[in-house]
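cron nightly-structures :: item 1 of 1
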Amino acid sequence: MTSMSRVCNKAPNLPDGSIADQSLYASVDGPIATGSAHFMRAGSELHLMHSDLELNDVRQAALRVRCAASAVQAALVQYRTSHRIAQELGFYPVHDERLRTAGGGTAPVRETLDAAREADMVQLDDVAVETIALRYEAGGDEAAYGHFVTELTGFSTALDAFAVGAAEAPPADWQRLAWQFLTAFDRIRIYGQALAVINILGMTPSAVAGAGNGRSNRI
């Protein structure tokens, strides 16, 4: 969980925060770390599913789909728990204020994502960056994270429905759905990755600057 928190959580270190703030972030971040571990396991199963299909092993591919569906369900339990705890403890206003303070009055969403793109930390086009920025402007981190949970819920429903009869599915369904599931997973993963970048680097302006310089320092 410690290593996952360095990648997925909103603020793994708050040197300037109070003990109360540290506890608040820990309560919200713990389920996110566990949920992210389950979510990435689902992605691994979906990628391996494609390997199975290339080898004409439909039985194994069907098992992969069921495993992926279970992993997404487990991830959702954790992500929803984090969302509920954040709402009950009043986390979102605290975090949004920290982001605004770091950005000099406005959450530095566009600046952070642009720097992250330059450093090859996240793959987003201009439209996606603007959509995420507007979501933060409209409802803060709660709206941005809530959208992530909603998208993952829809993905989980579709994956569950196919997993039930995957072993008997005709080739045409496999040809279509195998790519659709992987594409949907990647889209949700990239969105979640963008939120993680905002919530970690956006809290520390110097980190954003460092990220933006990442590409020029490469060999």
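cron nightly-structures :: done
The first helix runs from residue 2 to 8.
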